[in-house]
Design goal:
Shape: elongated
CATH class of the domain at 8-78: Mainly Alpha
CATH architecture of the domain at 8-78: Orthogonal Bundle
Structural class: mainly alpha
CATH superfamily of the domain at 8-78: Winged helix-like DNA-binding domain superfamily/Winged helix DNA-binding domain
Largest sheet: 3 strands, antiparallel
Number of strands: 3
Distance between the termini: 88 Å
Strand order of the largest sheet: 1-3-2
Order of helices and strands: HHEHHEEHHH
C-alpha cells in the first residue's frame, strides 16, 4: 500500500503506529524526528502538533513490538532483524539432574516454624509474654473519662 497514493480521509482512519509501519516498509529505517515529521505531513497536521506530540510518539514506538530501535538511533521494522539470542536445547539428562536437585532441597524443620494456628500454648513464647504485660490494663469508656 503506497501512502503517497492514499487519500487524506483514508490516512486519517489509520493510527500513527500503522502509518509509521507503512513508512518504514516503503522507505526503510528512519529516526524518530523524521518519522514523526513524515506522519504530520501526511496527515496535514499543524507544526504545533509535531512539537507537542513528539514525546508521545516516541513512547508509542517503544511500546509497539513491530518496531525496533537500532544502535544508530534509527527505527526499523522488527521483522527485518534477527535476534542475537541463542536458545540452548537441553537434553533429558540435564532436566533429570535439575529435578533431582529440586527434590534434595532441604526444607526447614516444622518444629522451627511459628505455629500460631495449632492452639498449642507455650509459656516461653514471646507472644504470651506481651499479653502478660497488658493484663493489668483496663478499657475506659469516654463517658467515664468525662465524669472524672
Amino acid at each position: 500500500m503506497k501512502l503517497a497514493k492514499m487519500k487524506k480521509e483514508d490516512l486519517e482512519l489509520l493510527s500513527h503506529k500503522d502509518i509509521t509501519y507503512y513508512i518504514l516498509e516503503e522507505e526503510g529505517k528512519m529516526n524518530t524526528a523524521d518519522l514523526f515529521k513524515r506522519v504530520v505531513t501526511l496527515l496535514e497536521l499543524p507544526n504545533k502538533t509535531y512539537e507537542e506530540k513528539i514525546g508521545d510518539y516516541y513512547t508509542l514506538l517503544t511500546t509497539d513490538k513491530r518496531f525496533i530501535l537500532l544502535e544508530d538511533g534509527n527505527w526499523d521494522l522488527r521483522s527485518r532483524h534477527t535476534s542475537d539470542k541463542i536458545v540452548k536445547v537441553t537434553e533429558d539428562e540435564d532436566e533429570e539432574e535439575e529435578e533431582e536437585i529440586k527434590e534434595d532441597t532441604i526444607l526447614p524443620d516444622e518444629s522451627e516454624e511459628d505455629n500460631y494456628d495449632s492452639g498449642d500454648t507455650d509459656e516461653d513464647d514471646d507472644y504470651d509474654d506481651a499479653n502478660e504485660d497488658l493484663k493489668d490494663l483496663v478499657v475506659v469508656d469516654e463517658d467515664e473519662l468525662e465524669e472524672n
